[in-house]
Specification:
Elements: H1 8-14, H2 21-24, E1 42-48, H3 52-68, E2 72-78, H4 83-94, E3 101-105, H5 106-109, E4 118-119, H6 123-128, H7 138-143, E5 145-146, E6 149-150, E7 153-154, E8 156-165, H8 166-169, H9 187-198, E9 208-209, H10 215-228, H11 245-260, H12 270-275, E10 280-284, H13 288-293, E11 298-302, E12 312-315, E13 317-322, H14 329-344, H15 347-350, E14 355-356, H16 359-362, H17 365-368, H18 373-376, E15 383-384, H19 397-410, H20 416-432
Parallel strand pairs: 1-2, 1-3, 9-10, 12-15
Antiparallel strand pairs: 3-13, 4-13, 5-6, 7-13, 8-10, 8-11, 8-12, 8-14
Helix pairs in contact: 1-4, 10-11, 10-19, 11-20, 19-20
Amino acid sequence: MGQPGLNRRQLLATLGGLTVAGSFGFAALGTGADALASGADTRVRYWNLFSGGDGYNMIAMLDAFRAENPGTDVKDSTLQWGNPFYTKLAMAAAGNRAPDLGVMHMGRVTGFSPGRLLDPWDVDLLAEYGVKEADFNPALWRRGVIDGELYALPLDIHVQLCFYRRDVLKPTGLIGDDGKLVPVTSTAEWFDVLKEARKATKKGLQTIGLWTNDQNFQWWFFVAFYTQLGGTWFDDTNTEVTFDTDKATQVLQFLRQHVTDGYTIPGAPTGEQFVNGAPFTWEGNWSLPVFSGAQLDYGATPLPPVFGQEATHAESHAFVLPHQAGRGGAANDGAHRLAAYIVRNAQAWAAGGHIPAYTPTLSSPGYRKLQPQNEYVSAMDHQATEPKVWFAGSTGVLAQDLGPIVVSSTMGSAEPDAVARRMKSRLGTLLAAKNPMDGRTAAQGGAAA
């Protein structure tokens, strides 16, 4: 592979807006020279960004791996979620101090300079440990392929869902005999559902939580419904903006109507109101443990296909190999073995709400029994994802840039048609911008699967 094109000093300069060096230190950038665990002959250094319930589930899977593989010592480090994690990981790879294994959001992989800050997976070695392309959703697998090589091994997809309270909605007739929410296939049908649901809504509660002033959620919802309309972003060469302002305006008007018709209270605590009896909330699947812990009688479906085509926003946690100048040997083999083990044994991960990427898990009896996971597993086949460009992905530049613009429309401070035109203009600016990781535009970045 050779050395990456950026050293740590250059990387800090290009990412100067992320002041993580003083805040978080570099304790996790160690060389792993401390003693191996008793009986182990190989160390695998693994960085992740999982905290809370996800963190506990990941620790359980790591402990299971350790029990079955006593010859491999896994030294895991959990770093702060978001841009601080990505900055630290990039600096470690640029300075040849990278861990053997890492986790990233799939949407960020293209911008992470694959081939310079990330090393490709050995798919033959993965196959030896029981993981092969045929066991994954084809579209999800292709998202991890850059210039013909696999750089991201999917662990899951995490999606935006429509959570609903069965106990609140039963008197309205909106719950079918199967105990599920009645199907919705148009915007008119959806607002009819909300109209009926409002009749069962307690005073002081909103009918649906929509995260109206949160730039990330509003962006994720926009991506979902824009995809339902068949909207595109750029041409195949990433040289021309194909963003459809008419379709975007339809989506923006749809989101805003929830506020103007009084179904959503701007700024209201969405999860808390749902626990207290609000009929609906749109949330990420990671909220499932909270609602289950509150012992609610609830269900969860993908976002309603109000524009005809099924699609709900999806991101993916994926395993990556941060660049090492001398990658290979026992530690690299251990990284492949560990990642493959977790991917194949992700039942515990599914308990946290995520949809496992390994499709044999989805058809297993244990997964089929999970409620409400088995109600939204179809989202795997209807993923609405951001475009495959360097500035996309979770907490990426695209969301930071366009999310607040979507919020301005939903909250009513700007008109939807004007917002759609502004979004297209910003997309043109981003398309021409250079990735601070490698100095290349989206057209020069190489993202052909």
